[in-house]
Each structure stands twice: as C-alpha cells, then as structure tokens.
Amino acid sequence: MAAENLIEVKGLKINFGKTEAVKGVDFCVGEDDSVAIVGESGSGKSVSAMSLARLLPPPPICQVSGSVKYKGEDVYGMSAARLRKLRGGEIAYIFQEPSTSLNPVFTVGSQIAEAVRLHFPEEKNVRKRVVKALEEVGIRNPEQRYDSYPHELSGGMQQRVMIAMALSCAPKLLVADEPTTALDVTIQKQIIELLCRVRESRGMSILLITHNFGIISQLCRRVIVMFRGEIVERGLCSEVLKNPQHPYTKALMDCIPRLNDKSRKLRPIDYDKLK
After folding, report:
1. What percentage of the chain reaches a pLDDT higher than 70?
2. DSSP the chain
3. Looking at the structure, do residues 155 and 180 belong to the same domain, yes or no?
4. For residues 106 and 101, what is the distance between their CA atoms, to the nearest angstrom?
5. Contact 234, 203 (CB under 8 A)
6. What does the alpha-carbon distance between residue 203 and residue 221 come to, in Å, rounded to a whole number?
7. Looking at the domain assignment, is residue 260 inside a domain?
8. Mean pLDDT over all residues of the chain?
9. CA distance 250 to 233
C-alpha cells in the first residue's frame, strides 16, 4: 500500500430518506494507488464514490455521516471555495454516460477549456492545453476535434473527451465510474488501456467503480467488493480473483463469460444463499 493516503473513509453511512444506501464502510486510496470497487447496481459503490467530493444531494434528500478525509483534511468541513478547488482540480470524475455529461450545444474543446479556466485562471494558452489533453487520450486531429460538437463523435470518442477533461486539471485522484459500460467490447479494452497508460505516465491514483470483475485486473492493484451497502470482501486483485472468499464475490465472478468453455452457462445470483 502507498505510504500516504489520498482518501481515507471511515464509518461512511449514506441514507436517502429511510433507505440505507451505504451502511458504515471503511476504505482508503493511497498515493499512486489503483483500487476497484465492485458490485452490482444498488450495492452502494457509486454513491460512496460521489461522497468523496460531496457530490451527493444535500439534506434532507441525502444524509451522510462518518468521516471522509482528503490528505488528512475533512471533506465535509471544507468551505465552498475549497470544495471548488477539490472538485476537478484534485479529485476528477469520469461517468458511464459521456453523452449525458457533455453539453450538446457547446464544442468539446470549449467544455474542457471551461474546466481549465476554473482551476488555472493564470493559464495564458488554454486552447493549447486542451489540444494537448485531447492528443494525450488518443484523439486524432485534436486541433480539429476541439471545435467538434458531442454529437459528431462516437461513444468511444466522447468517453475519451471526458477523460481528457478530467486529466486537463492534473488531478491526484481519478474516479472512473463505470467508464466502459455503454461501449462495445473492443472500445472497452481501448479505454482500460488508456486509463492504465495515463495512470502510469502521471503517477496519479485511480478509483474504478464497476460491476464487472473481468476488467479490473489490468487496471487495479486492490479490489473492494460491496453488497447491499456493505463491504463483504477486499484484498489484492490477484488474490481475490484467484481465491474469492465471500459467496457474493464468487457469484459475481461466475457471471463472467468464458470464451474457452462453451458448455458453461452463466448462473444467476442466488440471493437466498447470501443472507
């Protein structure tokens, strides 16, 4: 584990009215670390990730308790001005539907430039910085694509734009929330390889949120498994993938298709056995 924690979460509870979405979880993400939180829809993984930068709705819609610290600083005690610096500047997010994250009436370059101006008001050549970010994520003809609108790009290209937007402000932690869900298999592989490459080149940390055990081993060193708002298993990816201990982890792994075993059918998760 990294020597110092970027994020340290203790006793995190998240309630939406009477619904307990997260039930007192503890986890951390270190410097130059790579962690996956795995679980099916409704397990609490995405809301846990959003709580790291206070992106959840305010009370009474959502009640958050426990401790969330960024480099030892209490996130829920931060001022509005400090939060603006944290969001995007130190903790950046990539979401699973780039088409809904990008504004259709503005060019992709102008949307990335807006983030750069917010966090680097002293930057004199914003366009050059944006073009460099687009080039880094593998977008061809970045000068031309700067002036493209979201609808002119494929889903994979849109996701690359979202990654470029996140990277443009040089965050310490990149939270990738189901970044490959809406993409076909070949594009999924390209996006995971891209995230691996930029993590290594920048030395930043990644927190990957996913339901798919099949994509975590290439990108992440550690894995956390969430089930119904609780952490049921954690450890090194290599160890958990080789020898899962919890029945829910085993059930999720049984959902991974195997190309070399055509006789094997995917098994549904038997929740009665997990109680």
Report:
1. 95
2. --SSEEEEEEEEEEEETTEEEEEEEEEEEETT-EEEEE--TTSSHHHHHHHTTT-SPPTTT-EEEEEEEETTEEGGG--HHHHHHHBTTTEEEE-S-HHHHS-TTS-HHHHHHHHHHHH-TT-S-HHHHHHHHHHHTT-SSHHHHTT--GGGS-HHHHHHHHHHHHHTT--SEEEEESTTTTS-HHHHHHHHHHHHHHHHHHT-EEEEEES-GGGHHHH-SEEEEEETTEEEEEEEHHHHHHS--SHHHHHHHHTS--TT-TTPPPPPP-GGGG-
3. no
4. 12
5. no
6. 14
7. yes
8. 91
9. 11
Model confidence pTM above 0.85:
yes
Q: What is the distance between the alpha carbons of residues 12 and 65, in angstroms, rounded to a whole number?
A: 6
pLDDT digits (tens, 9 = 90+) for 191-225: 899 999 999 999 899 999 998 888 898 899 999 99
CA–CA dist 4, 99 (Å, integer): 36
Task: Tell me the residue type at 273.
Answer: K
Mean pLDDT of the region 159-188: 90
8 A C-beta contact, residue 128 and residue 120:
no
Q: Are residues 146 and 260 in the same domain?
A: no
Domain that holds residue 209: 1-90+173-186+201-275
* 21 and 65 belong to one structural domain: yes
d(CA 116, CA 217): 32
The answer to whether the CB of 31 falls within 8 A of the CB of 6 is yes
